[in-house]
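Appendix B, record 7
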Amino acid sequence: MGCKLYVGNLPYSCTDDELRTLFGQAGAVASVQVMRDTATGRARGFGFVEMATEEAAQKAVADLNQFDMQGRALVVNEARPKGSGGSFGAGGGGGGRHEPREPRW
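Structure tokens (predicted):
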């Protein structure tokens, strides 16, 4: 298990400091980021916590998965690396050059 954890089902009012305090109960916290909507600044309901040690990460998952935070059961598990999964953004083929087309009228 890695030290970076995904935390889902967060209350929309949750702050980085609240999350740091909560996860600090499991061990030393290296970093916290509550993901926010870029347009409104409102929390998106999930975030990431990086614990300082593997042991602290395991304890956080064991202690805080399904923890009730303001009436919401948190989902805490190991964060998955950002991948190229799916077919979006992936692809090849073509030489990269496209000849201009005549407009269809």
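Remarks on this record: The two ends are 59 Å apart (CA to CA). Residues 86-92 have pLDDT under 50 and may be disordered.
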